[in-house]
Amino acid sequence: KDSLGALGSRIGLRIGNAVNDDKLTTDATYTAILAGQFTTVTAENAMKWEVVEPSRGVNDFAAADRLVTFAAAHRQLVRGHTLLWHNQIPGWLTSGVTDGSISRSELRTILKRHVTTEVTHFKGKIWQWDVANEFFTDSTPSTINPNDFWVANLGEGIIADVFRWARAADPRALLFYNDYNIAGEDGTNAKADAVHAWAKGLKRQGVPIDGIGDQGHLDTQYPFPTTMTANLRRYEAAGFKVAITEADVRTFVDNATDQNPTDALALMAQPYEFSQMLKACLAVRACISFTVWGVNDRDSWIPGFFTDPLQGYATLHDVHLQPKPAFTTLQQDL
Ligand code: XIL
């Protein structure tokens, strides 16, 4: 009864994790942690375009369906991730655009079909959709990235169109814009300012955008962003729900076997930053979910992505799937 999920439920906050659906049939410990501790799940990859439309016009929702079924069996709500992003789009699509065999108007039609097909497939089963992901630059000032694949080919307005298509296909799902460093994590607040102004503008024009997801990928080499609560409150004041969607706290690794730092201060930094991030969400009424990105350090994306120098140790359970100090800290905070 003192699982993270149960503790969150008492205060109306869903606690989640990102799921690799293969593990649900092959790893009982992984599955027990997921079922026992969490009240919302996100597909780590299974709902991304390259997975759901491996060849043109041929959809495969099998992996995502397995996760949705698992979630229903365990009374978990599902975050859909993600409809419009520059990464993990099918090879047939990018090569068609590059070699000119897919024209811009055809690209728009293909995108509309993708969004409508996927949102319709999961209609009634998705709590929050990450409709659009990672469109803003990390520069100061931050803007919508003109070189983004979608913006370069179809213009900025395509983002609003995708929100409209998603709303039409499933009017009850909460539609989110999702990005990293949009609650002050970059130390400048530039990206937070830009996303706030843009989202508020879209809302004013009647674009159906309900929420802002802050990914929450933190790094112990930087201080905790003290403007996080203020940034979440600013989104709330503009009428948005907010969510922490991909929380992890990476640390330089000097023990590659265990994805583990050995330095005592590094070990303390991780629970501290997780705790501060949860508290930022707890301090904001509009913050409806706190999702961790990865069930354990063995399966986390961090060591595969941040390799030079190697980083890891980013989740709540270690490589042996044992709970870490960060886990107990969140339990106490809840
Ligand atoms: C990552 C997954 O965790 C990896 O398994 C995959 O290889 C690449 O994508 N921001 C996002 C997520 O929005 O979709 C990314 O997930 C991590 C960064």
Distance between the termini: 12 Å
Order of helices and strands: HEHHEHHEHHEHHEHEEHEHEHEH
Overall number of domains: 1
In which order are the strands of the major sheet placed? 1-2-3-4-5-6-8-9
User: The CATH topology is what?
Assistant: TIM Barrel
Alpha-beta content class: alpha/beta
Number of strands: 10
- Rounded to an integer in angstroms, the radius of gyration calculated over CA atoms is 19 Å
For CATH, the homologous superfamily is named as Glycosidases
Give the C-level CATH assignment: Alpha Beta
Quaternary structure of the protein: single chain
β-strand amount: 15-25%
Q: Looking at the structure, what is the overall shape?
A: globular
Helix content: 40-55%
Number of continuous helical runs: 14
**Poorly predicted spans:** none
Q: Give the second-level CATH assignment, the architecture.
A: Alpha-Beta Barrel
Q: What is the arithmetic mean of pLDDT?
A: 96
Bound molecules: (3S,4R)-3-hydroxy-2-oxopiperidin-4-yl beta-D-xylopyranoside
Major sheet characteristics? 8 strands, parallel, barrel
Structure description:
The chain is of the alpha/beta class. The protein has a single domain, classed as TIM Barrel (Alpha-Beta Barrel). 41% of the residues lie in helices and 17% in strands. It is built from 14 helices and 10 strands. An 8-stranded parallel barrel has the order 1-2-3-4-5-6-8-9, surrounded by 5 helices. Helix 12 links the parallel strand 8 and strand 9. Helix 7 runs parallel beside helix 9, helix 11 runs parallel beside helix 12 and helix 12 packs parallel to helix 14. It starts with a helix and ends with a helix. The site of (3S,4R)-3-hydroxy-2-oxopiperidin-4-yl beta-D-xylopyranoside has 6 residues, from loops.
